[in-house]
């Protein structure tokens, strides 16, 4: 993308309403614009990151054997009355009447509807196990929305639902989600720690929240420092293997890690003092096993091998997709701006032309642009006539992990400058070598 | 995907509520399930097609130089009061109050919000031309929703907005959209004819609707038969060239083609009688140029080269994404079911195992599955123990364009059967030859 053709309304001033760094940088980098309290437009740069995160989730869900679908945003109140949650949900549910005066709502979660779809179509244990998921907009009418996309009212969420014959099967689905989520977050450059959680209004016995450590996190968390040494890495997991999934669960949840909701001071104090950590965390996902709560209430049964009708065991599993942008920025920034992890960066590299209009510099930039594009990478080429300092400031603010700086002086020596956003380190390289290095970083083959 | 692991709730009976063939087949093929009147869940097979259509639109919009973003679903009534449409929109707008008693609505279109984003961020003619678009869920509270996704209340729509300094520039944006839409629809296997249209509540002078001919279409259309001979094909268009875009517009709109709203009997009768056609059509998109209607009302101005503040010229351009599934099925089916065009098929080929459990047949199917998958194609392998007749009926119903049938008898002769869903013709081929033929059809290189 050429910056002169793009829509990237970068702000120089820090908007007064933004209290935390991710909110400030998302506004300043032209990623979002508030439309109403807690409701945002996703400007092109923000939308690109949102799509990247969405695609990673789709890929990882497919890897785990989960099936994508999509449920509607507006639902009838009827199913929610059947489950008993219509009254229980309170003022956070956005309610409305349609033109025929029927009670409708903007769905905040979809246990009821997915259970309804299941009971209408599945009748035998032979069709199990089954895990369906969607990525869809949700609404929760927070009384005081704040922190930008971290605590918005309209938000994008992945919600998945497993249906299993037995508790054992459902706990395997639970573990499978835990493994899949660990992989998903790591691909986004995040360390998200599964912590024992409180089940809240969805209900359930087994539940873990995934928290990203960050000073601005809304939850206080206590953990054993050994947990932050764990990496999922590129281990190959057979998602159908109960043993493999259970082993990962045990590895990642056997050390103490809890939010204030479930904190147990006595247990915490059993950890050697030098490993005790108290910090703050941002919740970016949660997994639940809640047994037959909804299948009992809504009559979602299957016939088992002996022909008995039994309620299915269920769980639900969520990732806060739009909130992840905020969490990633909270975890990865400096005082100049965002530092995108390679897995989710909106553009793979920036190209800064120090002397737009200089024939040689322009040609070198165009050649770099063409080479990177031919590799299937997306560069952002600042082809404007801004002065160099302003170009650098914008690039640092929007946080592309790699920047290639092109100027007449370097070109005389046959080099451009490749700079890492994270370390700030630069090296002078021939243009082809810079392209080859970026190709290697992103794991794409040179054409 | 192995059918035994998939969620494909195929119905044997035709649901009573479905009046048109696309609605019947989408329900029977397990693509959608009604959640409330005019509101559908997109089951896995339907969601896959929806995503394919969405991706084609994103690719073609990028090719035309348009920039993707996303606006929120819930908007405040304030902007709609500013444009004067809050009262004008009537009962089709789904309205609600949030917990602070503010008037909110589920957005049916986004001229107001995009104009607000524009005026807040763009102040100079140097930032033009600019075309922003989104693909987002919309709601129109139809009094009598029907025909499945063709006339639902909650629907998925691409809506794009151009901002230009002059009327001339904006008419180029209009032409660019026309060219881009022709390409987009053809990639989906559709012939969508641009017809002179009535501007309706959005307002505007220049507007064309794109109609797909189908017996069940809601509009009567009259056209010169020469128009159906036009193909966009794989011509390479420079979307920045006014001449090239204008030439395509002239080629595709100079012959008579109008809906009943704009029909002119006298003009129609000037066409030689043998070329006059009266038929029915389904609207799948519309482009508008409406000048300064919104920029005047909302103060969206830029400074021009002389430093004067001038209102921008705008247009809006829509594609009915969810409705396209219905339109494609209306245009491409037979009495056995859907016939997907290759560009949007949910799976590239079906594999039917005639004797599940037979070691040789199972191994041959697995090998085909692995070969197709290695090519980056997605096969659907019916690995269930249903009888052959039922497997064929399901494959015909869901409409994958190619089916490979594998049975012990053929394998003795070293062959499988490759069948075209469209023609019904079969040929016997060695398994590798069947894979090579499918690879060629989809234009993928054999690994």
From TrEMBL, chains A, B:
Gene3D superfamilies: Anticodon-binding domain, Bira Bifunctional Protein, Domain 2. Keywords: Aminoacyl-tRNA synthetase, ATP-binding, Cytoplasm, Ligase, Nucleotide-binding, Protein biosynthesis. GO terms for cellular component: cytosol. GO terms for biological process: prolyl-tRNA aminoacylation. It is found in: Cytoplasm. Its main location: cytoplasm. InterPro entries: aa-tRNA-synt_IIb, aa-tRNA-synth_II, aa-tRNA-synth_II/BPL/LPL, Anticodon-bd, Anticodon-bd_dom_sf, Pro-tRNA-ligase_IIa, Pro-tRNA-synth_IIa_bac-type, Pro-tRNA_synthetase. It catalyses: tRNA(Pro) + L-proline + ATP = L-prolyl-tRNA(Pro) + AMP + diphosphate. GO terms for molecular function: ATP binding; proline-tRNA ligase activity. NCBIfam families: PRK12325.1, proS_fam_II. This is Proline--tRNA ligase.
